[in-house]
Design brief:
75 residues, alpha+beta, 4-stranded antiparallel beta sheet, 4 strands
Length: 75
């Protein structure tokens, strides 16, 4: 089964949270309400350096995805 690169997540236990799930490596869940990130991967030393370089781009892409989805819902 294939998944889109990003998914929106919602949970009534966290009514103010807006979760975006990144389904490709490096997989993570970001709460756009407070920018808290939960990584779903284990990283070795080499991966951590690459991750630090790419993390901001990934978080910006997650925010862009959310904005696009909301635009589509409201449009």
């Amino acid at each position: 089964m294939s998944f889109p690169k990003f998914l929106l997540g919602d949970n009534t236990d966290f009514p103010e949270a807006i979760f975006v799930v990144h389904t490709e490596f490096p997989r993570f869940i970001i709460n756009l309400q407070n920018d808290e990130v939960e990584w779903l991967e284990e990283f070795d030393k080499e991966d951590k350096q690459e991750l630090e370089n790419e993390a901001e781009n990934l978080f910006n892409a997650a925010n862009d995805f959310y904005d696009r989805e909301i635009e589509r819902y409201e449009g």
